[in-house]
Specification:
With 449 residues, this protein is of the alpha/beta class. Strand 3 and strand 4 form a beta hairpin.
């Protein structure tokens, strides 16, 4: 049995104050402060000739260009190839917007971001030492909800990976949980890592010397608390206090799980990967019809110019209260324009660390699809790492596709009736795309030896 080596590192990647905030259409102001720092964190594991790196980044998502910049620089510095590099975004909504493109004002920062990410992997790689690792699962029920169908069950499992030095000193703790990282709403103009930052800080404070990382699960349609779309009665208004409440609860559960994890030396490491082509969503309306509707709606509703959310807004009601952004028909126009384009590339990855298997995929995977991957790989041994690699959009289950297929173009923009389908109506992917991703992900997990 070969010796397991491990190293971990982290670095602050908080942008300068003064850049525009991203990730909320109803927040267009520039950042005015820093509530808490954003980080890039890395864990490098090696056994014999096999080396992998797990990277967690406090960002909503990244473009293909940023991803390739990280991959190329990591390969130059460490020799770890892109296939052995898991790059995961925490998807917090109080970061610069790299989801689909890099705005011109962020071009220099984007290059800096990629350099910092690669440098953290290099630091972790240079600091590897003999180690032992283990994992276990817990549960954090009552804090999350399916935002489309509040009555449907959600995956509330919490996975924790523990990595220690042979003397028992902590090296890394990795948390896996499925929930949209948006406890901090658009009424703020401060950079923040949101609830996942609170959770990781809590673990690091309690477990001095560790680097705690968060790997996003399949939370595409999962919101914190009771923020199902249309709920006007929530007492949670997406404040820093909400982030602290959920983050501390998750951090406490992670610490409880850590306390019962047994670590082992000499764990094997394995990697598998595959690129698939995801079919695009097709719509029943023409490009011209959608363009005409969009122009009419823009004239009727106007253009939103607000720097922050209006008072009383949260993610459960944002669409209903602000059709100027969410109901102006732009999405329907883009879907019609893009449906004839080639399929969308999706890089799937699978990693094994001892008995733990991690299925990684890009985009915002709906929770039931993540559950299916876990069932296929083994619920007691499988994590799902959604929001990995570059951002490619929402990947929806089939049911909401079928329910929205009968809604005519002129009605689908009505946010008081159809807001619940956001994530499906905005997805670039066909109903069968998610099922394809699940099948291929399970098959890839089966290739791990």
């Amino acid at each position: 049995m070969s010796e397991l080596l491990a190293g971990a590192a982290k670095a602050v990647v908080t942008p300068p104050v003064g850049y525009h905030m991203g990730a909320w259409g109803l927040r267009q102001g520039r950042s005015t402060g820093v509530h808490d720092d954003l980080y890039v964190k890395a864990l490098v594991l090696a056994n014999g000739d096999e080396r992998i790196a797990l990277v967690a980044m406090d960002v909503a998502g990244i473009t293909r260009g940023i991803l390739e910049g990280i991959q190329q620089r990591v390969a130059e510095l460490t020799g770890i190839p892109a296939s052995h590099l898991l790059v995961n975004s925490t998807h917090n909504h109080t970061t610069p917007d790299f989801l689909n493109r890099v705005p011109e004002e962020l071009a220099i920062y984007a290059r800096h971001f990629a350099d910092v990410a690669a440098g953290v992997v290099y630091e972790a790689s240079e600091g590897t030492a003999p180690a032992a690792a283990g994992f276990a699962f817990g549960d954090l029920a009552g804090y999350t909800v399916n935002r489309q169908y509040r009555e449907r069950p959600v995956d509330t499992s919490v996975g924790v990976l523990r990595v220690d030095g042979l003397d028992g000193s902590p090296i890394a703790r990795v948390i896996n949980f499925a929930c949209h990282n948006l406890c901090v709403g658009g009424q703020y103009l401060d950079w923040s890592a949101d609830f996942t930052g609170v959770a990781c800080d809590h673990v690091e404070l309690a477990d001095d010397g560790s680097v705690c990382m968060f790997i996003s699960g399949a939370g595409g349609d999962i919101h914190p608390f009771d923020w199902w779309f249309g709920n006007t009665d929530s007492e949670h208004m997406e404040t820093f206090e909400d982030a602290a409440e959920l983050g501390l609860a998750l951090g406490e559960e992670a610490l409880r799980i850590l306390g019962r994890i047994s670590v082992s030396e000499g764990l094997d490491i394995a990697v598998a990967g595959k690129t698939i082509e995801m079919p695009r969503q097709r719509v029943t309306w023409t490009v011209e019809a959608a363009r005409r509707q969009h122009e009419v709606l823009l004239e009727e509703l106007g253009v939103y110019r607000g720097e922050t959310w209006a008072a009383g807004t949260n993610t459960a009601t944002a669409g209903m209260l602000n059709p100027v952004v969410y109901g102006n028909g732009r999405t329907q126009m883009l879907l019609a324009e893009n449906q004839e384009k080639p399929p969308i590339r999706a890089d799937l990855q699978a990693f094994r660390i001892g008995d733990l298997r991690i299925s990684a995929s890009p985009g915002e995977l709906f929770n039931e699809l993540g559950i299916q991957i876990k069932d296929g790989g083994g619920r007691d041994s499988t994590w799902v790492a959604s929001y990995s690699s570059e951002y490619i959009g929402y990947i929806s289950t089939r049911l909401p596709h079928e329910e929205t297929a009968v809604i005519p173009l002129e009605e689908i923009v009505d946010q008081t009736r159809h807001r619940r389908y956001y994530g499906t109506t905005t997805s670039p992917f066909a109903p069968e795309a998610g099922e394809l991703l699940v099948r291929e992900s399970i098959a890839l997990l089966g290739e791990l030896k």
